[in-house]
Design brief:
Two copies of one chain form a homodimer.
Chain A: H1 8-15, H2 19-26, H3 34-47, H4 53-60, E1 65-70, H5 76-91, E2 95-100, H6 105-117, E3 122-125, H7 133-141, E4 145-148, E5 160-163, H8 165-178, E6 184-187, H9 194-209, E7 219-220, H10 229-238, E8 245-248, H11 251-263, E9 273-277, E10 291-295, H12 297-317, E11 324-327, E12 329-332
Parallel strand pairs in A: 1-2, 1-3, 3-4, 4-5, 5-11, 6-7, 6-8, 8-9, 9-10
Antiparallel strand pairs in A: 10-12
The first copy, chain A, binds a DNA duplex through helix 2 and helix 4.
Chain lengths: 341, 341
DNA sequence: TTGTAAGCGTTATCAA
DNA sequence: TTGATAACGCTTACAA
């Protein structure tokens, strides 16, 4: 099949220019005569030339590629983020590599190594936060990166773009309290994740403001990748744990909660009010629309990319860093909650 | 920040071995003394060596990378497929690059070019099918590829893995007919996509079997990327178009349909029965579970990858091709349909 | 078991 | 405006 791939050399031989001239003509450089450029470009097209950017990047030192490293690409939240980053990157003629970590530390490390070994110009990563090690490692390499969605609050070296998780947690809890719920089950993500920890802060703050005591029994962590939400809800109900409101770490967990509550014969919002996080219904119009906390994924994605590109350019010059961005969150009320006053 | 990146040369200098020996030691080749290997590997780790696979692939001719090109990564269907391909690829120590086409022909072409320019060893692509050109172009390059989810039935050169779309369309329609629906709205994808066309065949076949005349008014194409499902449903209802069953091209469209029907005051499945396609509820347990056609995404993904790897290996040898795989579909009944007899 | 030499396809640099 | 040469970091082939 397929003859060997056409290279600059082939074009050079056919045109009697040098490889160098051909290279610059194809890059449309001004210092090559317009006519020469046209001629070479035409022939290149005719011969089916495809740039070998691998070879180019070996020489030039940059690849016009960035890596996007997330926990679970099949979670619509990350799906949307990846799509938005890709779209924004394309405008700047960057390509993205997507790597999945399943929020596992070893896979995260190997994802970072893979990205680096492919000479990416920068990395946008939603860190597993099982430890700081992988990110310190990344930091030491000097390759520009930006955290997205999670941060290390105490480490100023790690630039990030997150949403206002504490406010989100606060707004969700406050809304449930305002609508008459006192026993609010919080199905949180694992606490080593900053977003989980900060949403928890918001949860506690709201409870405190309303003088509702914190019941540790109502704070649970069903897991993000392999969710045990359904089992958890079932056993909570069977054990007769008392709650009427649910605040879930993300919409997927909220959906599962509603799914199981309905399966057990309860109505949402009739018997339980449920709030999610991520506002996926803004993109996917599903039945039984979910009350949720909206974090602008397109804004987060675009900001993360902008910052990354800035860091990439600055790092050629000299210093960089100090980017800390918190995108606003707000409550979007839909049909999974109701006023029980 | 960051000192310059460590290369084989640096390690060679520190150990007084040659670059070549270091290279082979790090690849753990048997022809290097075990002791030497250990010593070099230890030092490499100590010095923070990260392989430059770009340089390696330039020389070796393969990159251990495959490209996955899809229309919309934020659609959970593709999110799941990408995740499954990534997982399977990782086992074979392959990395994936993900590229979005938005089902647009120009973006598809540039996605293919980007993939090729990065020297991927192979491509798994869900073609936009706006024309055959891009795939013929890909074919001519000689780079191994496999279509996933869509096929060109009349072009035997293009290997594919799809699900049994016709059967899926047939099963969905038959089920609606069996449960008493005669007026079945088919919200299809655009007909230039093989899956849409073949599901339509199934739809027609079932109608025919049951002696129900085909009403063109009931066959619509709300669009896949920018879905106009909600507007469409609203206007159909307002125009008083008569139907009681809906078969949607995918679950996202089905969800939107139910969303809008409910918004207009109708019940699902009380007033309308709705069937989707993709069976996303097998992964995401959402409230109001959707009756859907199941196509095993993990099986499709794994088969596509297996075939691709086979083609990659065979293409080094000589011939390859002739892979045509149809994964079975089946009906999964949930709560969005009911027997109206 | 290790070393030497060449080369992958580009781009950078400097000379003409 | 174009050409000659070297170099990017690695792997291959072969020699020692």
């Amino acid at each position: 099949m397929a003859g060997k791939r056409v290279t600059l050399k082939d074009i050079a031989e056919r045109t009697n220019y040098t490889i160098n001239t051909v290279s610059r003509a194809l890059k449309d450089k001004e210092d090559i005569a317009l006519e020469t450029r046209k001629k070479i470009q035409r022939l290149a097209k005719e011969m089916g030339y495809i740039e070998n950017s691998v070879a180019g990047s070996l020489r030039s030192g940059y690849s016009k590629t960035i890596a996007v490293i997330v926990g679970d690409i099949s979670n619509p939240h990350f799906g949307i983020i990846v799509k938005e980053i890709e779209k924004a990157a394309r405008k700047h003629r960057y390509t993205i590599i997507v790597l999945n970590t399943e929020d596992r530390e070893e896979l995260e490390e190997s994802a970072i190594r893979t990205a680096l070994s492919k000479n990416v110009d920068g990395i946008i990563i939603c860190p597993s936060q099982r430890s700081e090690d992988n990110i310190w490692f990344l930091q030491r390499t000097g390759v520009p990166f930006v955290l997205i969605g999670r941060r290390f609050k105490s480490i100023p070296e790690f630039d990030y773009v997150i949403c206002d998780d504490e406010k989100g947690g606060y707004l969700a809890t406050k809304y449930l309290l305002d609508t008459g719920h006192k026993r609010i089950l919080f199905l949180n993500g694992p606490l080593h994740i900053s977003s989980a920890e900060e949403r928890y802060e918001g949860y506690k703050k709201a409870l405190q403001e309303y003088g509702v005591p914190l019941d540790p029994q109502l704070v649970r962590e069903p897991g993000l990748i392999q969710s045990e939400t359904r089992h958890l809800i079932r056993s909570l109900i069977e054990e007769g744990v008392d709650f009427t409101g649910v605040f879930a770490f993300n919409d997927v967990i909220a959906w599962e909660t509603i799914y199981m509550l309905q399966k057990l014969g309860y109505g949402v919002p009739k018997d339980y009010s449920v709030i999610g996080f991520d506002n996926i219904n803004a993109r996917i119009f599903s039945p039984s629309p979910l009350t949720s906390i909206s974090n602008s994924k397109s804004k987060m994605s675009r900001r993360a990319l902008d910052i990354l590109l800035k860091k990439i350019n600055e790092s050629q010059a000299g210093k960089s860093g100090g980017y800390r961005e918190v995108v606003d969150t707000r409550l979007v009320v839909r049909d999974s909650t109701r006023n029980s006053h």
